[in-house]
Amino acid sequence: MTLNDRAIAAYLGLAIGDALGSTVEFMTPREIAEQYGTHDTLCGGGWLHLKPGHVTDDTTMSLALGNSILAHHKVDALAAAQAFDGWMRAKPVDIGNTVRRNLLQFRKTGNPEAPYSDHDAGNGAAMRVLPVALATFGQPEEGVRAASRAQAHVTHHCTLSDAACECLVFMVQDALRGADKNHLLHTHAHPLAARHPEFKFRAVRQSSNPSGYVADTLQAVFQSFFDTDDFRDCLIDVVNRGGDADTTGAIAGMLAGALYGLDEIPEKWLKGLDANTSRACAIQAQALIRITDQSV
Ligand code: MN
Ligand code: MN
Fold it and tell me: What ligand is nearest to the CA atom of residue 123?
């Protein structure tokens, strides 16, 4: 499996998880079971009334960030803030409260770094880390961390969000290198929980209604990702927990895509994803993964 394949699979996985989860976002597992049995199709609907295969802010903010990285050949905080601001002006289907508040603040101040707040521990920066993981692949750790913070702090300037974002970036990069799941668990997920107990995900199996709090989100994602053995099972397990299902789906899809690769993504999901989104993700994944080569 080539690096290129894994990069594309991570990006399509993000979009597929977003599209799959959006149908059941804010539902409880019981409500999902009553309405869908096991929810496993890109059928659209949900509280946003999406068309089948369409995606939400998790994917569209990632694409906006990726475009800004490609335009500047690096992760640049001001360029990212301008890209997110442009994205917000285009009236996206959904937008998080913290994202909106801090982008409005950016419009006033021109400062691409939001003020620090322990309360801004939502998953809004973590859901869009993939372009950073791809663009900084192979770069020294400190540079990768700085890039992760530059994009995250536009809307979420918070220790727990930073820890989640950086953990996800390094997990994706190791998966792109061909690391196995056990390595990802012991090198990234467990150390994150050791540094920040909020992320502990095995002691109590919290299985339903993961909230938009980044620790809740990552607990659900990690439980599903580490307890399943293929792309399909991972995504079905995580979105059927309901709650912030488009975002748990997006993050789990990104990790599972990078780990299992393109061939493991079910055909019906690849075909069911909105064609424009699918094309944009595949093109951007390949362009971003090449940035490091060009800049070295
Ligand atoms: Mn969303
Ligand atoms: Mn969401």
Answer: 2
